[in-house]
Amino acid sequence: MGALSFTSPFILLALGALPLIWLLLRATPPSPKRERFPAFIILRELKTSEETPDRTPWWLLLMRLFLAAMIILALAGPVMNAPQPGTHKGPMVLVVDDSLAAAQQWRVRLDAIREAAAEAAQDGRQAFLLTTAPQDVPAPPEPMSGEALRAAGDSLAPKPFFADRAGAAAKLADLDQYLSDGDVEIRWLSDGLAGEGDDALAAALEEKGELTLYADARAPKYLLRALPVNSEAPAYRVERLEAGAPAEGAVVATARDGRELGRAEFEMAPGEKTREVTLNLPLALANELSVVRIESIPSAGAVHLADARDRRALIGLARNAESASDDLLSGDHYIREALEPYAAFLNDALSALLQSDASVIVLDDVGRLRASEAQDLQAWVERGGVLIRFAGPVLAEAAQDRTPQLTPAPLRGGGRAFGGALTWDTPQRLDAFAPESPFAGLAVPDDVFIRRQVLAEPGGETSQHTWARLEDGTPLVTGAREGDGVVALFHVTATPDWSDLPLSGLFVEMLRRLTFLSSLGPEAAEDGEDALYAPLRMLNGEGRLSRPDDRARALTAAELAEPPSPERAPGFYGAPEAPLALNAVTADARFEPISIPGVVAAPYEAAPPVSLSPPLYVIALLLLLADGLLALLVSGRLNWRAASAATLIAVSLAPLSPDRAAAQPLDPPIEEKTMEAALATRLAFIQSGDPAVDELAEQGLAALSRELHRRTAVEPAAPDSVDPDTDDLSVYSFLYWPIAPDAPTPSDAALANIENFMRFGGLLLIDTRDDERAVGAGSTPEGAALQRILGALDIPPLTPVDDDHVLTRSFYLLETLNGRSNNNPVWVEADSSGSNDGVTALIIGGRDWAGAWAADSFGRPVRPMNTGGPRARELAYRAGVNMVMVAFTGNYKSDQVHTPILLERLGQ
């Protein structure tokens, strides 16, 4: 019964009065005085079958005592699982895992921080906040009040890294100067994952005070890993932390422009922790792959970023007529074996390959090309294709007369042999790759020897085009740009006849680098190991991509191959059409539930408090009804048959009542943000994901709120920023939604929230802010983003606003809804007579209203008007006032027009 408590425990003292109640109920009136009366002799001889007892039966007294006890207990307010008051009075230390695994239940941790902050504020205790996610420059923990702890917790957000608990343990030394009091309470809000340094952190915390570890193993946590590339389709493994219950979900693949390319459903049986899924996509769609995520899991651990290196090239193999027919003796065999996991192949005539979608063409020991083929191949390379050539006897023979067409450097006829009868040197090893070479950074094996090669003419041009060379300086691979494409020549065969290169892993990596040039574009042919790739899109802890901030820096290809860190944030880097990706989850990332010997993990959410008073009142009521029936029966005023029927009815209804009045949970808490918005009138805007756009929207609504306070009876408080995924929109009447370029389509939950907001009386203003740039529908990135959003949003037909619309006369008489620009129409519901009392719930335009309203703290405009100057800005403010008045008052202005007619009909 440790979970049982009472809201009014002193009422339980009334239980001591039960013996007195027993005596009062047992007391009987004085016995009647006996008088002899002869006539009673006749009555005495009568025999009756039913006799009235002279005192209350003991079982009825016991039932009445039980009834009184039920009433007393109900009045005492018994509660199961009520929160227990804290016993600590010393400092409180919160250790928070703000990692990517914590993002999946971040709200639970935020509630735990707020609860701890409330306790610290109530008891006047010092509080300390220590986070475990890696940081650029970790700030030393300092004492703070409960209110400051709440503010610091609200500013926290999950990071796209795993927890660094060893680093957190090292930072605990900074707390020694503050934790002199022995009564220290430590709460470790873990993410539930095991990691390096768990035992060290737990031991360090237990030395400082009493440790409570929070880790709910029942909470679902998922991880997405990319499986090694194969020749079939992109494959991934879904992992979950808890395998007790069945689970189902979907892995969704999206393109760079936000389109959904495909999805793979998965199911997990009880006890199953992993499931492999394959995205069956055609090659063209697979090469557009950008982001793969587990649907509805908000975590960077449930997201895999696919970059240009994951794309599978379409390689055309043009076989020479004189090549060997045996596959094991053909260069095509070794090329296929090297690139099979990373590419698809076409084996056809050169003329057919040039008409295909191949991005790479391989010529294995092809000497002379027909003039027409050479001309077409030259044009194909200049358009961006990559041509890879291999030497051999045929090419060496063709070089005797003159250098064949489409070779990066002039060739010397005849070839050169090592270790043969005519040799003048021993077989050569490869030299290290130059930094400017596409092969820069690849390790050169010691067991690869070159025995024969086609030589290039020495000179400046050959030196410039040499990408790989032997230890004696002779070129092994030469390459050059041709227009937008690349031509590369291996001066050895693709078979092991002339060298050991085709049998080495280096051969695979060199070919991958060359095919990678086709994916990245022509400029990549000159990128070396020191080339920097600028940050393009950053991945946050919740698995969302956003624009990089000032702290993001450019990385080299070698840095992008290392695990993520604060200096190497996960995300996309490089060119938008072919970016490089740094993922948050590495191949060897640990994914196991946390388990520390000697430390018991407590759940974040204990059983909810449940009031037991309602069922006790129901039991008391049933006992009271039964007591009345039994009292009538005992006194002889009720037939036993009627009593039996009434009892049967009560018994049959008894099981129904406790279910309806079963232990009722206490009212769920209301979010403070929702409560503040409900108690004070506020305008709000939907977060766009772009900090600059959101800041301008907040400034614009703040300035409009000041104008409303000055001109109308509406007195708004400071505007709110809302997230339709999590925030309650029902407490707002006016929402401003600025559309940022490349804005993603909101989730299903967010779309449903927005639709309910409009359905139940809210006014949504969607602003693409592209009026001065928009020429037609979808002609700007904002317009394209709006089309994707409207395609998923359930909205009615739209029509342009005319000068008779209620929006142009709700407060001011206007001709149009002015903004910074007024080139294109503003759209509203075409027919809103069937909902919201005939008031439109949606306004769509691109006039950058927030930019027209926005002002700094001194009241100075933030952005200039495109035309019209101060007068145009005043009209924009009037348009904003009209829209807000429609949101708050509906069509009252339209109703005023009909007032005389209505009064006349009523006979007034």
TrEMBL record:
Transmembrane intervals: 6-25, 58-80
CDD domains assigned: A4_beta-galactosidase_middle_domain (cd03143)
Keywords: Membrane, Transmembrane, Transmembrane helix
Domain Aerotolerance regulator N-terminal: 4-78
Domain annotation DUF4159: ranges: 682-888
Listed InterPro entries: Aerotolerance_reg_N (IPR024163), Class_I_gatase-like (IPR029062), Double_TM_dom (IPR011933), DUF4159 (IPR025297)
Listed NCBIfam families: two_anch
A family per Pfam: BatA
Protein name as annotated: LytTR family transcriptional regulator
